[in-house]
């Protein structure tokens, strides 16, 4: 009975009220400390960094008390300056806390290089879609006398003959030398055909020369 009397006594009620007040004060103190230490109420609008170089990005984010991290380089986009920002996260206009990291994707210095597969000897209908799928552009189609019609005899870029394993930047223009089915093709680098200077010998001339050789003339 004495315990229950104590629960309802003025002394206990005063102590209980004092304890509650202490807890309330401590609670407000903790909340205030958290707000001040984590900048709970401070919100910063993320600036638009699109097409900015890293030097401009640094200035912009330093003024806004934000940081940046470059996470990747995208495929080259000709609509953006080299080494400029293509993508950012968080997006422009989003509100973040002070010292937040902004993740950036940059535009590289140019198109990446692509290695050519073996294409000589295939048909034009096979080669053209392959080159386009790899990101190249088709230039001139040079028809030359060759026994196989539509066969790709050479690939060229800026006048230079290409071979399997050569690397060119994406969007490079590649010219094709294609057979027309009317003769035999003599490659330019053939050491035994100096008199032809890399020409394409019609079938009738080639057969005449073979007949002369057979006759021992």
TrEMBL record:
<keyword id="KW-0723">Serine/threonine-protein kinase</keyword>
<dbReference type="Pfam" id="PF03793">
    <property type="entry name" value="PASTA"/>
</dbReference>
<feature type="domain" description="PASTA">
    <location>
        <begin position="40"/>
        <end position="108"/>
    </location>
</feature>
<protein>
    <submittedName>
        <fullName>Serine/threonine protein kinase</fullName>
    </submittedName>
</protein>
<keyword id="KW-0812">Transmembrane</keyword>
<keyword id="KW-0472">Membrane</keyword>
<keyword id="KW-0808">Transferase</keyword>
<dbReference type="InterPro" id="IPR005543">
    <property type="entry name" value="PASTA_dom"/>
</dbReference>
<dbReference type="GO" id="GO:0004674">
    <property type="term" value="F:protein serine/threonine kinase activity"/>
</dbReference>
<feature type="transmembrane region" description="Helical">
    <location>
        <begin position="12"/>
        <end position="34"/>
    </location>
</feature>
<keyword id="KW-0418">Kinase</keyword>
<keyword id="KW-1133">Transmembrane helix</keyword>
């Amino acid at each position: 009975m004495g315990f229950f009397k104590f629960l309802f006594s003025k002394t206990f009620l005063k102590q209980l009220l004092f304890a509650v007040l202490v807890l309330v004060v401590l609670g407000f103190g903790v909340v205030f400390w958290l707000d001040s230490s984590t900048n709970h109420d401070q919100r910063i609008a993320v600036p638009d960094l699109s097409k900015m170089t890293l030097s401009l990005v640094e200035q912009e984010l330093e003024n806004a008390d934000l940081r940046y991290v470059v996470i990747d380089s995208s495929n080259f986009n000709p609509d953006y300056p080299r080494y400029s920002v293509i993508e950012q996260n968080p997006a422009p206009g989003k509100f973040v806390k002070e010292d937040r990291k902004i993740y950036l994707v940059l535009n590289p210095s140019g198109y990446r290089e692509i290695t050519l597969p073996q294409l000589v000897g295939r048909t034009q209908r096979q080669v053209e879609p392959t080159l386009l799928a790899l990101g190249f552009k088709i230039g001139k189609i040079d028809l030359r006398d060759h026994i196989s019609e539509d066969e790709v005899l050479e690939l060229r870029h800026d006048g230079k003959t290409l071979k399997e394993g050569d690397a060119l930047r994406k969007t490079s223009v590649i010219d094709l030398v294609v057979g027309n089915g009317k003769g035999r093709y003599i490659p330019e680098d053939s050491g035994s055909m100096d008199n032809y200077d890399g020409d394409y010998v019609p079938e009738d001339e080639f057969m005449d020369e073979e007949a002369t050789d057979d006759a021992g003339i």
